What we know:
seven-stranded mixed beta sheet
Amino acid sequence: MTSPENRAKKILVTDASRGSAITIIRSLGRRGWHVIAADSIPNSLGFRSRYARETLVYPPADADAKGMSEALLTAIREREVALLIPVTDAIILPVVEQRERFEQLCKIAVPATQNLPIVTDKLKTLQLAESLDIPTPRTRLVDTAGEAVKAAAEMGFPIVLKPQSSRRYSGESSEAFNVTYAENPEQLAQQMGRFEGRCSVLLQEYYAGEGHGVELLTYEGEPLAAFQHKRLREIPISGGASSFRESVPLDAAMYDYATRLLRAIGWTGLAMVEFKVGASGPKLMEINGRIWGSLPLAVHSGVDFPSLLADLYLNDSRPATPRQDYKLGVRSRNLELDMLWIASVLVGKKRFPFMKMPGRVQALTALLGLFNPTYKYDILSLEDPRPGMAEIPKVIRKLTNKAKESA
């Protein structure tokens, strides 16, 4: 429902080329909020949305975090922004560093600074979970290849290497780290070489199973809305961002674990609590304390997290009871990531022998599924077509470059 109060308030959304950010722009725009789409990419997909009333280009946060922060502060001041919604850690970390300056000008949709380390530091997340009797994979913290090989001898192979934090921020720039695997001591020592001297690593037992995400909006730890999805495809295939997912019923155990965690933290804002469901039931993987990539599926299914978030911060509006009703069986894909998944399966390279690879028939089925009218897309939309139409040539260029690299 559009209101005069909404139209009078401006909301700035960063990282506007991402499907999650475009979903936020569309959701808020439908409600009548005045949305400013911001990105470091001059031709950002989000700039093309019919719901982007204004646009802003800022310096790349990875290379020039301070320049990015100053550009946002200037825009917020000059354009009289009421709410800043930072979408990625690359933006969140520098904003939090200068939180006082930002909050003198507007509200920022970022949980309390003292709560962030519990979710950005994976070791602290697991320690909290263990104190709450929430199942987690066996884990050891290591800093060197020697420590890792010694620990793995006790834990066994294959083993997962998780950087203690997904991103390191230096004050000037930031660097992202990715999860990897090892199936013998030689591989483990080699993989540890990528991290040694740069970040600590969590060695974790490999736990096979389905990936599930319990998505929540909370206020001081109490749930206001909840949604759950199951990952159907991930890129890289060994585990990563979901390229295709499905809305599923809230699982009582996982919902209980997720709410206990966020209640213990006192979390206000959006979060996704990730689990693997395997032979021993669900085990916690991590808490994603930023806006997650599969957010479009939740909105397609009827849980309008972006509007609820804006209402919480700008209208002090909270549902009397947690919203948990949504459509089940809705499927949504990230076109770029899903095309990369299809291409990876068709090429047939098996990066980790201990993992079961999907077959080419599954890839061809996924390719045909692109034309299934019941499936949703993160960006492609008849209601707001321009971002999706611009995404298609971008995907083609990406696939062409990947093909050249493989050749």
